Automatic annotation (TrEMBL):
The chain crosses the membrane at residues 32-51, 71-91, 103-122, 142-164, 185-206, 212-234, 239-259, 284-306, 348-373, 393-414. Residues 9-413 form the PTS EIIC type-3 domain. One of its GO terms (cellular component) is plasma membrane. It comes from Tetragenococcus halophilus subsp. halophilus. The phosphoenolpyruvate-dependent sugar phosphotransferase system (PTS), a major carbohydrate active -transport system, catalyzes the phosphorylation of incoming sugar substrates concomitant with their translocation across the cell membrane. One of its GO terms (biological process) is carbohydrate derivative transport. This is Permease IIC component. It is found in: Cell membrane.
Amino acid sequence: MLDKFTQWIEKYLGGPMANIANQRHLRAVRDGIIAALPLIIVGSFFMIVAFPPLPESWGITQFLTANAETILLPYRMSMYIMALYATFGIGASLSKSYDLDQVAGGILAVTAFLLTLVPVSIPEEATEIAGVEGFVLPMANLGGEGMFVGIVTSIIAVEIYRLTDKSNFKITMPDQVPPAVARSFEALTPTLIVILLIGSITYYIGFDWHAFIGNLISPLISAADSLPSVLLLVLLTTFFWFFGIHGLAVIGSIARPLWLQLLESNSSALATGEPLPTIGAEPFYQWFIWIGGAGATIGLAILLAFRSKSQYGSKLGKTILAPAIFNINEPVIFGVPIVLNPILMVPFIGAPIVLATIAWFATSLGLVNAVTVTAPWTLPGPIGAFLATNGDWRAAVLNIILIIIAVLIYYPFFRVYDKNELAKEQGTTEG
């Protein structure tokens, strides 16, 4: 039965899911956002500095809180405008997939995105107060709220670039001209088209890109920040992983823009002293569900390292435990293996669902803070949870409790797996 089901999955789902994960535009979105990840991580750490997890009576806490507005400036120029950086990454990645100049594609993408923003003139009465005159850009649309507009306009800009290159509708310079100069002239035509097209739609037709796309995706954002949505994403991710398909690559490519917008909602609320509005941002998955990697496999790694009676399980466990602590679980998934292993399928899918449910209610009831920071994913679980929740020690405790629960869920299935491995070894020895 399992063999037939596996063959069906490979025939009807394996290929299509792999194609989705490698689809040109989705891959560009994924790679573009990942390219901006260092800025998101480093920028978000200024939130911890501005609002330190220290007693309020301490002098250093009072000093940092009093100067929070200044301390947060690097955050506002990094994570707060992450859509701007991600847009360049998306344009560059998509251009690379078409064998076009990456820098030109990235610049075109940023140009198209900025042309969706309407500069606002500062009134004279506000000039003296703000110390700024002229025009300003609405920064809110440069962050998570503008991410989907950035995705759409990046794709439009690069596709225009591709069409002008493919049709040879461009200015071609002689071979004697330096390559950098030649590429600049080749980009003139698509740049003209992008500016005329996007600029006319925004400024002359009066189309509000951000309001339109915001209205379209608002139901998706609301749905993404719900327990059923979290459980569905967990189920799909582990289901694909079980058949050897990188579940996070498939699901993450689609959900990551939503996760980033949820995260920015929390970090912006923290910066302004407002209640944190969302739960299901990506760090929630990282530190309370994917502990040790997809499937919460740190539970299995611990059992293999310390409870295995079979030689293979024991040696494998000691080998994979260190990577699992740092959330690298490919050795577990392919070394045990978990892929196509009917014994371990239940805990691999079931453990993250249980952990997600517990963590969701713990956060919604205020037992732990919601996530506001993107901590490096290779940190050990309790440390990452502590940092991701802006220094909430209760999150570190919850992470440890969830690891223990993962161990308990994996235990009966591990016993069956280890018993089978031991029987194989004894049979080989006796033979």
